[in-house]
C-alpha cells in the first residue's frame, strides 16, 4: 500500500513523495524481503543510472525490497538543483526511508551518496542493517571542491552566490552555490569519530580522478564499528559501473545480506 502522501502511478512511471514544503521526490520501489536496499545517488546524478538500475534488477531477481529516488533538484524530482544543499538532500533521504520503506535497510551510497548515507544512518541507526559506499565522498564540498577554488573563484562565489567549475561529466561544468559550501560545513562527518556500528563495505577505484581512494580509508578509520571492509579496485574509475564492477557490488551485497540474515537483521 502506498504511503498517504505518495501519489499512485503506473509501473512505468515514477511515483512522487510529497514533502512538507510542497516539493516532490520522485521514486521507484519494489516490495520484497528484508533487509531492503536503498540507493543514494551522487551529485547531479539521478535514479536512472547504471548502478541503481542494476541494483533494482538484483533485488527483483532475489525477491528483495528496493528503493531508488531523486533528491530535490535532481532527475524527476521538483526544485532547482542550485537551490539544493547537503542538508536538504540528507533530509530527502531520511524522508524516503521513513515513508517508503519498512524494517531494516542496507544503504548503498555512490560518491556524494556516501556522505548522504552516513548522515541518514546517523539519523536512523536502528533502521540500518549495513552500508555500502561506492567511491564514497563524505565532506567533499569542504575537502575536495573548496580547495580547488582560487581566490578569484572564492570571491565570485561569495559575491555572486555561486561558481561554475569544469567537470568531466558535464560539458557546461558544475555549478556550486555558496549555500552548498556553507551548509556542507554544518554537516561534516569526517572531523571526528562516526558512531555507527553496523557492517560497512567501501568500494573504491584507484584510478578515481574525482574522489581519491584514500577517502574511503579515512572513512573506515572514522567509523567506530569493527565490521568495516575497504575494497580497492586497482583499475577502477570513479563510476565503478563496468560489468566487473557491478558483479563485485552484487558479491558484496550477497555476503553482506548473508551476514544480516545470520545476525537476525532480516526481519
Explained architecture:
The chain has one domain: Alpha/Beta hydrolase fold, catalytic domain (Rossmann fold), CATH 3.40.50.1820. The chain is built from 8 helices and 11 strands. It has helices at residues 50-62, 86-100, 112-123, 140-145, 151-160, 178-185, 214-222, 243-262, and strands at residues 6-7, 15-18, 24-30, 33-40, 64-69, 105-110, 128-134, 162-167, 170-177, 200-205, 228-233. Strands 1-2-3-5-4-6-7-10-11 form a 9-stranded mixed beta sheet, sandwiched between helices. Residues 1-11 have low confidence and may be disordered.
Q: Class, according to the CATH hierarchy?
A: Alpha Beta
Mean of residue pLDDT?
A: 93
Uncertain residue ranges: 1-11
Q: What is the CATH architecture annotation?
A: 3-Layer(aba) Sandwich
Q: Which series of helices and strands comes N to C?
A: EEEEHEHEHEHHEEHEHEH
Instruction: Characterize the overall form.
Output: globular
**Spatial extent as radius of gyration:** 18 Å
Span between N and C termini?
19 Å
Please provide the count of β strands.
Answer: 11
What's the structural domain tally?
A: 1
Beta-strand percentage range: 15-25%
Task: Find the CATH superfamily.
Answer: Alpha/Beta hydrolase fold, catalytic domain
Q: Order of strands across the widest beta sheet?
A: 1-2-3-5-4-6-7-10-11
Percent helix, as a range, is 25-40%
Based on secondary structure, the structural category is: alpha/beta
The CATH topology label is Rossmann fold
Main pleated sheet: 9 strands, mixed
- Number of helical regions: 8
Amino acid at each position: 500500500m502506498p504511503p498517504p502522501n505518495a501519489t499512485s502511478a503506473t509501473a512505468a512511471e515514477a511515483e512522487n513523495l510529497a514533502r512538507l514544503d510542497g516539493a516532490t521526490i520522485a521514486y521507484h520501489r519494489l516490495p520484497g524481503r528484508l533487509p531492503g536496499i536503498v540507493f543514494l545517488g551522487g551529485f547531479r546524478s539521478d535514479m536512472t543510472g547504471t548502478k541503481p538500475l542494476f541494483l533494482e534488477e538484483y533485488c527483483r531477481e532475489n525477491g528483495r525490497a528496493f528503493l531508488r529516488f531523486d533528491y530535490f533538484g535532481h532527475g524527476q524530482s521538483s526544485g532547482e538543483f542550485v537551490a539544493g544543499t547537503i542538508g536538504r538532500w540528507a533530509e530527502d533521504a531520511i524522508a524516503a526511508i521513513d515513508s517508503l520503506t519498512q524494517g531494516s535497510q542496507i544503504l548503498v551510497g555512490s560518491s556524494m551518496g556516501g556522505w548522504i548515507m552516513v548522515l541518514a544512518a546517523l539519523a536512523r541507526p536502528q533502521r540500518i542493517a549495513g552500508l555500502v559506499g561506492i567511491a564514497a565522498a563524505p565532506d567533499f564540498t569542504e575537502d575536495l571542491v573548496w580547495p580547488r577554488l582560487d581566490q578569484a573563484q572564492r570571491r565570485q562565489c561569495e559575491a555572486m552566490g555561486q561558481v561554475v567549475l569544469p567537470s568531466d561529466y558535464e560539458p557546461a561544468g558544475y555549478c556550486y552555490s555558496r549555500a552548498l559550501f556553507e551548509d556542507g560545513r554544518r554537516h561534516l562527518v569526517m572531523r571526528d569519530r562516526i558512531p555507527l556500528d553496523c557492517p560497512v563495505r567501501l568500494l573504491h577505484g584507484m584510478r578515481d580522478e574525482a574522489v581519491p581512494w584514500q577517502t574511503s580509508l579515512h572513512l573506515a578509520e572514522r567509523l567506530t564499528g569493527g565490521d568495516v571492509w575497504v575494497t580497492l579496485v586497482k583499475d577502477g574509475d570513479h563510476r565503478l559501473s563496468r560489468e566487473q564492477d557491478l558483479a563485485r557490488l552484487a558479491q558484496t551485497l550477497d555476503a553482506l545480506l548473508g551476514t544480516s540474515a545470520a545476525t537476525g537483521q532480516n526481519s
